[in-house]
Amino acid sequence: MTVRLLRRSVRSLVSAWSLAAVLVTGLASALAPGLAHAEVSAADPIDAGMRACLARADRSSTAGQVQCMDDARTAWRAAADAALAQLVAKTPPAQQRRWRASQQKWVAWRDAEDTMLGAAFATSSGSSYQLYEADMRLQPVRDRAQALRGSLATAADKPVRARACSADARCEHVSYDLNRYYRQLYARMPKHARAAVARAQSAWRAYRDATTPLIDERARLDLLGARLATLKRLSETVNNR
Hints:
The chain is mainly alpha-helical. It has 10 helices and no strands.
């Protein structure tokens, strides 16, 4: 891939792939209020820094572009840790324990997810897929930081308990599609790598279950929609060469 095409691919990746949670199904119009967080915000210093890094001539190679995204991922992880520390400091002891449990489950999921992504992208070749992989490692960390910031901003408000997913048509719809794409991804993965997919999904469910009691229905749709976007993208990427 030429430098020009590579940089064009990265620009598209940053602006378009981060919208995947909105565009992933015909639910976009119904879910947009809950999924709009996925848009890359030009005002955020971390996003702005990544854009500047991606535009640098000395970062125009695939390795350079991946490094820009990895640096942003590290910055978002620090932002998530800072937001969590502030959130815990503002909440009662019982809530503090729940937030720490949520974070523990999130870390376990991210570790399992990174293993799954490595296995999934090992089935594909080409520099563009290296960029997709780097972005897919970045976006969940960014999502977590943004979600924690959102919870911090509303920590003083009276908690709004989410209904059971079975009582929320949007939640049920997204969950159905999510499970469908998970099965599709599992079937497309090489047999030796399917265990990594199952472990990542199990870890994600544990994170979802630990986090749902702490968030409202809109934030739950964010969480589900982001997972749906990931599984859909991977199910369409595995074995592409």
